[in-house]
């Protein structure tokens, strides 16, 4: 079954404690990205990757890091989380630039 | 830069009423257009997509959308909504830069 898997689904952490949200896909898609969803703001792109070792900033990259060492994985790293990063995070993949995005189940992060 | 504007923040309808959700986009080149639905507590799922050809596209669950190039619009329609259509709906535009930009979403509440 084609899947985009995020872990964890829920996370409560404290300010400043480094965390990683993992994203893995089994569809061999080249393009992966991370979004955050906040009420009234829709989805905003954090980072994206067009292929292994190729990443670039989206619209709201501050406070986040990513890496793409292998095609199937695209982890999101928060080196020093702050309360304003409390949000719902989605990983998404696309075959190429003219196809739709497939989303993971989401990770609800709370930073206290 | 590309952008998406969804006109309605919250739409409330009764069952069997007709639905039209507005979406306007801004992009200087060839666009790919999408509508996604997000049921409460779930991830985004694709309703329909437009790449080229017939500007009237049909999607799942009886939804359709019409691409009007001259108006930069891609409005979502459904002739008769059901209680189960209660969800948040997102319009998205993709360009030639791998970027998928989402609108802020329209919350649809269907009262039985």
Characterization of the model:
Chain A is an all-beta fold. In chain A, 0% of the residues lie in helices and 51% in strands. Chain A is built from no helices and 11 strands. In chain A, β9 and β10 form a beta hairpin. The relative contact order of chain A is 0.33. Chain B is mostly beta strands and 112 residues long. Chain B has no helices and 12 strands. Chain B is globular. Classes of the chains: A mainly beta (112), B mainly beta (112). Chain A binds chain B through residues 31, 33, 35, 40-45, 48, 50, 58, 90, 92, 94, 97-98, 100-101, 103-106, and chain B through 9, 32, 34, 42-46, 49, 51, 90, 92, 94-105.
Descriptive labels:
heterodimer, A: four-stranded antiparallel β-sheet, B: 112 residues, six-stranded mixed β-sheet, four-stranded antiparallel β-sheet, globular
Could you outline the blueprint of secondary structure elements for this entry?
The complex is a heterodimer of chains A (112) and B (112).
Chain A: E1 4-7, E2 10-13, E3 19-25, E4 31-38, E5 42-51, E6 54-57, E7 65-66, E8 76-78, E9 87-94, E10 102-103, E11 107-111
Parallel strand pairs in A: 2-11
Antiparallel strand pairs in A: 1-3, 3-8, 4-5, 4-9, 5-6, 7-8, 9-10, 9-11
Chain B: E1 3-6, E2 10-14, E3 19-21, E4 23-26, E5 32-38, E6 45-50, E7 56-58, E8 64-68, E9 73-78, E10 87-94, E11 100-102, E12 106-111
Parallel strand pairs in B: 2-12
Antiparallel strand pairs in B: 1-4, 3-9, 5-6, 5-10, 7-8, 8-9, 10-11, 10-12
Structural class of chain B: mainly beta
The N- to C-terminal Cα distance of chain B equals: 41 Å
| Helix content range of chain B | under 10%
- Percent helix among the residues of chain A? under 10%
Largest sheet of chain B: 6 strands, mixed
Number of helices of chain A: 0
Poorly predicted ranges of chain A: none
The count of strands of chain B amounts to 12
User: What is the mean predicted local confidence, pLDDT of chain A?
Assistant: 95
> Largest interface: which pair?
A-B, 23 and 24 residues
Series of H and E elements of chain A = EEEEEEEEEEE
| Category by helix and strand content of chain A | mainly beta
Strand content of chain A: over 45%
Radius of gyration of chain B: 13 Å
Structural Rg of chain A: 13 Å
Oligomer category? heterodimer
Q: Kindly, what is the distance between the CA atoms of the first and last residues of chain A, rounded to a whole number of angstroms?
A: 36 Å
From the spread of the alpha carbons, the general shape of chain A counts as: globular
Sheet with most strands of chain A: 7 strands, mixed
Strand content of chain B: over 45%
């Amino acid at each position: 079954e084609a899947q985009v898997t995020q872990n964890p689904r829920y996370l409560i952490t404290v300010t400043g404690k480094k965390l990683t949200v993992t994203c893995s896909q089994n569809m061999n898609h080249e393009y992966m990205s991370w979004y955050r969803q906040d009420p009234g703001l829709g989805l905003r792109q954090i980072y994206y990757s067009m292929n292994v070792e190729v990443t670039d900033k989206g619209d709201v990259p501050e406070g986040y890091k990513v890496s793409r060492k292998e095609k199937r994985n695209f982890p999101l790293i928060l080196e020093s989380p702050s309360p304003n990063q409390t949000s719902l995070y989605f990983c998404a993949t696309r075959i190429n630039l003219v196809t739709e995005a497939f989303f993971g189940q989401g990770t609800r992060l709370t930073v206290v | 830069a590309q952008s998406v504007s969804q006109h309605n923040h919250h739409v409330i309808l009764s069952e069997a009423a007709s639905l039209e959700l507005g979406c306007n986009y801004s992009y200087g080149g060839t666009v790919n257009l999408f509508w996604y639905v997000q049921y409460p507590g779930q991830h985004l799922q694709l309703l329909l997509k437009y790449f080229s050809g017939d500007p009237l596209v049909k999607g799942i669950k009886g939804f359709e959308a019409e691409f009007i190039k001259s108006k930069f619009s891609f409005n979502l329609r459904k002739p008769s909504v059901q209680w189960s259509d209660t969800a948040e709906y997102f319009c998205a535009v993709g360009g030639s830069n791998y970027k998928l930009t989402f609108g802020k979403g329209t919350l649809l509440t269907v009262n039985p």
